[in-house]
Specification:
The complex is a heterodimer of chains A (426) and B (253).
Chain A: H1 3-50, E1 55-64, H2 67-70, H3 78-82, H4 86-95, H5 103-110, H6 117-127, E2 135-141, H7 144-150, H8 167-178, E3 182-186, H9 189-192, H10 205-236, H11 241-254, H12 258-272, H13 280-305, H14 308-316, H15 321-349, H16 353-357, H17 378-387, H18 392-422
Antiparallel strand pairs in A: 1-2, 1-3
Helix pairs in contact in A: 1-18, 4-6, 10-13, 10-15, 10-17, 11-13, 12-13, 13-15, 14-15, 15-18, 17-18
Chain B: E1 4-15, E2 18-29, E3 33-37, H1 44-51, E4 61-69, E5 72-73, H2 81-87, E6 88-91, H3 102-113, H4 119-132, H5 136-139, H6 152-164, E7 170-174, H7 182-195, E8 200-204, H8 208-214, E9 217-222, E10 225-231, H9 232-237, H10 242-248
Parallel strand pairs in B: 3-8, 3-9, 6-7, 7-8
Antiparallel strand pairs in B: 1-2, 1-4, 4-5, 9-10
Classes of the chains: A mainly alpha (426), B alpha/beta (253).
C-alpha cells in the first residue's frame, strides 16, 4: 500500500470515528431528555390533579345558639355543654338557610353540608360559651359534592340523574355563590384528620403517622441487625462454603417479591405469635425483613470501600481485630451505611403489598398514637382512595401521592446530605 | 558482636498452592539496619510480613518453619499476635495515617495498650514520639489538624511516630520511601540512621543506593529464596554469589 492511500484511509476512518462519537453523545442526550420529560409529565399530572385537595369549600351559616333549643343555660358546666343538643341547632339553622323553604327543599339543602357541621357548630360554641342566646355567622364545611362542583371537578351539563346534585340543589349553590356565602380556604382537615368515608373530612394524618411508626420500627429492627451482620461477614467471617452460601442468599433475599414477606408476616407474626394485626409493629417487622438484605448489601459495600491500609495500620500498632474494626473501619463506613439504611427505609415507605397482607388496609378513622394501635400507611391509603367511588377521593389520592413523594425526597435529601457531610476522602 | 534479635529458620510461605518463600533462614542482629533487596515478587515483603504476623490477614497465606524473636517462637497458634505487634512496629509502603488528627494518630497505640494513665503522660509520649520521628517542629502548632493534610513525607514520618509511640523494639519498614520524592526520602533515611541506635530495623527497599546508605546488613532475595546475606559493604563490593553480583550491577531486576 502506498503512503498517500494509507493516509487517506486513516483520515476517512478518523472522520467516521468522530461521527460515531457525536452520534453516541446525541443518543445519550435524547435518552436523558426522554426520561426527564416522562418525569415532568408524571409530576405535572399528579400536581394538576391533586393541588385542589389542599383547598376546601366552606359555607356561611347563621346559627342561633338558643338556650332552649340547646337545652343548656348560661350556667351549665363544661360537661353539660358537651351534651348540648347541637344537632337541633343545626337543623334549625338549615331550615332558615334560605327564607320560606319547603320541607323537600330543606332535605335537599341538608345534603349541601358536610356531616362534620354538627361538630363545627359544637366546637365553636365550646370555644366561645358566651355566644349562648345569640345568632352567629359561622363558616362551616360544605359537602364534598358542592366542593367538587365549585372546583370544576364534576360537570353540571350531564343529565340530572347522573349528577350528585339535582337542578334545585344546583340553583341553591349558584345562589350561595352569588351572595358570597361560600368560599374556598386552605384544607386543614387534609393534614389533621385520619381517613373517613366522607371525602371532605378525610385526611392523611392517620396514615402519615402510621407510616412514621412503621418506619421507626423498621429502623430500630433493621439497622443494628444489618450493621452486625455486615461487619461480621465483611471483617470476621472465615471465607468458606457456608459464608459464600449466606452471601449468595442475601442477594437472593433482596430480590424476593415483597408480598412473600407479607405472607410470612401473616403466617408467622400474626397467626403463630399472635401479634395484633393492622399495627405498625407488625408492618414494620415485615418491612424490616424485606429491607434487611438491601441494607446489608449497602453496609458491606461501604465497609469494603474503606482502604485496607487503615485497618493494617491499626493492627500494626497492636490493635485487636475488634478494635481495628470498631475504631477505624466502622466509623469510616458509617456515612455509607446510613445512606444505605435511608435508601432501604425509603423503599419500605413505598411498599404496599406486604402491608395489605397483614391487614394495614383496614379502614382506620383515627390517628394512631403507638406501635400497637391499628393504623394505615401512606401507600395503602392511596390505594384505598384510588379505589373509592366518590369523586372527592380522586384529588385526595393525588394529594397523598404528593405527600409521600415529598416524604421520599426529604429522606433522599438527608441521605445525600449525610454522605456529603461525613464522607472522607483519601 | 551484637546479639541476634530475630532468628528465622526454614520459613516456607504458601499463597494457596503457590509457594512464595523457600526455606528462608536468617539471623537479624539487634540495633542494626538490615536491608532486604531483590527484584519485585521475590518474597522480601512476604518475609517481612511474617515477622509481625501481618500475613494472618491474608486468608490463603500459610506460613511454616520457625521465626524466633528474642528466642520466642512466633510462628505458632499460641503466639499472642497483639503483644507481638506492639513489640514490632511496622511502616508501610504507602503512608497510611488514620483519618484523624495528628495527635490522635500517635496517641492511638499508647491509648489502646493502656500505656498512659493521664492526659499529660499521653501528651508527653505523643510529643517525644513526634520528636524521635523528626516531625515535631513541623507540626507542633497544628496537632489537631488531620494527619491526612500533611505532605507525603510528613505522613510517612507520622506513621513512624505512630509506630514508635508504643515503644517497640523492632521496626519493620516495607519500602517506606517508594512513594516519596528524593528530599523526603533523604530525611527518612537520616531518621532511620538515628533510630538504629534504639531499635532493630528491617527495611525492604527497591533502591540499592538506599540499602547501601542506610543498612549494615543486606540480604538478597530472588524467586522466593534467600540468595545471600551479609555485611552491606561486602554484598555491594564483593558478593559471593553471581546472581547477587548481576542484580547489584543492574544486569537484571
Amino acid at each position: 500500500m502506498n503512503n498517500s492511500v494509507a493516509k487517506e484511509k486513516i483520515v476517512s476512518l478518523r472522520k467516521k470515528r468522530s461521527l460515531e462519537d457525536m452520534r453516541f453523545k446525541y443518543y445519550g442526550f435524547t435518552a436523558m431528555c426522554l426520561s426527564l420529560a416522562v418525569l415532568v409529565f408524571l409530576l405535572y399530572t399528579i400536581f394538576s390533579k391533586g393541588y385542589t385537595a389542599f383547598q376546601k369549600t366552606i359555607v356561611l351559616l347563621e346559627v342561633d345558639y338558643n338556650q332552649e333549643v340547646l337545652k343548656l343555660t348560661p350556667d351549665s358546666s363544661d360537661e353539660e355543654m358537651e351534651k348540648g343538643k347541637f344537632f337541633r341547632v343545626k337543623k334549625q339553622a338549615i331550615e332558615n338557610f334560605f327564607p320560606d323553604l319547603s320541607k323537600s327543599d330543606i332535605k335537599l339543602i341538608k345534603k349541601l353540608f358536610s356531616i362534620n357541621v354538627d361538630n363545627e357548630i359544637k366546637d365553636y360554641f365550646l370555644e366561645n360559651p358566651e355566644v349562648i342566646n345569640t345568632k352567629q355567622q359561622i363558616w362551616v364545611t360544605a359537602h364534598s359534592d358542592v366542593d367538587q362542583l365549585l372546583k370544576g371537578n364534576s360537570r353540571r351539563d350531564v343529565p340530572e340523574d347522573r349528577r350528585k346534585l339535582n337542578d334545585i340543589q344546583l340553583s341553591y349553590v349558584d345562589q350561595l355563590v352569588e351572595e358570597n356565602r361560600v368560599k374556598q380556604v386552605f384544607n386543614n382537615f387534609f393534614f389533621t384528620k385520619a381517613d373517613s368515608r366522607h371525602p371532605e373530612i378525610a385526611g392523611v394524618a392517620g396514615s402519615f403517622m402510621g407510616s412514621l411508626f412503621t418506619l421507626f420500627t423498621v429502623f430500630i429492627l433493621s439497622f443494628p441487625i444489618a450493621i452486625g451482620a455486615s461487619v461480621y461477614l465483611e471483617e470476621f467471617a472465615p471465607k468458606n462454603r457456608i459464608t459464600e452460601l449466606i452471601e449468595v442468599n442475601i442477594s437472593n433475599l433482596a430480590a424476593v417479591p415483597s408480598i412473600v414477606f407479607g405472607l410470612l408476616g401473616l403466617g408467622v407474626l400474626l397467626n403463630v405469635f399472635g401479634l395484633p394485626r393492622s399495627t405498625p409493629l407488625v408492618g414494620g417487622s415485615v418491612l424490616a425483613l424485606m429491607t434487611l438484605p438491601t441494607i446489608i448489601i449497602a453496609c458491606r459495600a461501604s465497609l469494603k470501600a474503606v482502604p485496607p491500609s487503615i485497618k493494617e495500620g491499626a493492627l500494626a500498632v497492636g490493635a485487636t481485630k475488634t478494635q481495628a474494626v470498631f475504631h477505624h473501619v466502622v466509623p469510616l463506613a458509617l456515612p455509607g451505611t446510613l445512606t444505605g439504611t435511608i435508601i432501604g427505609l425509603a423503599q419500605a415507605l413505598g411498599e404496599t403489598a406486604p402491608l395489605i397482607m397483614i391487614g394495614m388496609i383496614a379502614f382506620i378513622p383515627n390517628i394512631p398514637t403507638g406501635l400497637t394501635e391499628p393504623s394505615a400507611a401512606l401507600p395503602v391509603q392511596i390505594y384505598l382512595w384510588v379505589e373509592s367511588a366518590e369523586r372527592g377521593f380522586q384529588e385526595k389520592s393525588a394529594a397523598a401521592i404528593m405527600v409521600i413523594l415529598i416524604f421520599l425526597f426529604m429522606m433522599n435529601a438527608i441521605a445525600v446530605f449525610l454522605r456529603n457531610r461525613f464522607e472522607r476522602k483519601w | 558482636m551484637s546479639n541476634s534479635k530475630i532468628l528465622a529458620n526454614g520459613v516456607d510461605v504458601y499463597y494457596g498452592s503457590k509457594q512464595a518463600l523457600f526455606g528462608i533462614s536468617m539471623d537479624i542482629k539487634e540495633k542494626e539496619v538490615t536491608a532486604l533487596i531483590g527484584p519485585s515478587g521475590c518474597g522480601k515483603s512476604t518475609f517481612l510480613r511474617c515477622i509481625n504476623r501481618m500475613n494472618d490477614l491474608i486468608e490463603i497465606c500459610k506460613v511454616s518453619g520457625s521465626i524466633k524473636v528474642d528466642n520466642e517462637e512466633i510462628i505458632s497458634e499460641k503466639t499472642d499476635v497483639v503483644s507481638l505487634r506492639s513489640k514490632i512496629g511496622m511502616v508501610f509502603q504507602k503512608p497510611n495515617p488514620f483519618p484523624k488528627s495528628i495527635f490522635d494518630n500517635v496517641a492511638y497505640g499508647p491509648t489502646i495498650h493502656g500505656l498512659v494513665d493521664s492526659k499529660n503522660e499521653l501528651e508527653e509520649i505523643v510529643h517525644s514520639s513526634l520528636k524521635k520521628a523528626g516531625l515535631f517542629n513541623e507540626v507542633k502548632d497544628r496537632l489537631n489538624e488531620p494527619g491526612t493534610s500533611l505532605s507525603g513525607g510528613q505522613q510517612q514520618r507520622l506513621c513512624i511516630a505512630r509506630a514508635i509511640a508504643v515503644n517497640p523494639e523492632i521496626i519493620l519498614m516495607d519500602e517506606p520511601c517508594s512513594a516519596l520524592d528524593p528530599i523526603a526520602t533523604a530525611i527518612i533515611e537520616e531518621l532511620i540512621d538515628e533510630l538504629r541506635l534504639n531499635y532493630t530495623i528491617v527495611i525492604v527497599t527497591h533502591s540499592m543506593q538506599q540499602a547501601a546508605r542506610v543498612s549494615q546488613k543486606t540480604s538478597f532475595f530472588h524467586l522466593g529464596e534467600l540468595i545471600e546475606t551479609g555485611d552491606t559493604k561486602k554484598i555491594f563490593t564483593n558478593p559471593d554469589n553471581s546472581k547477587t553480583q548481576d542484580y547489584i550491577t543492574g544486569r537484571f531486576g
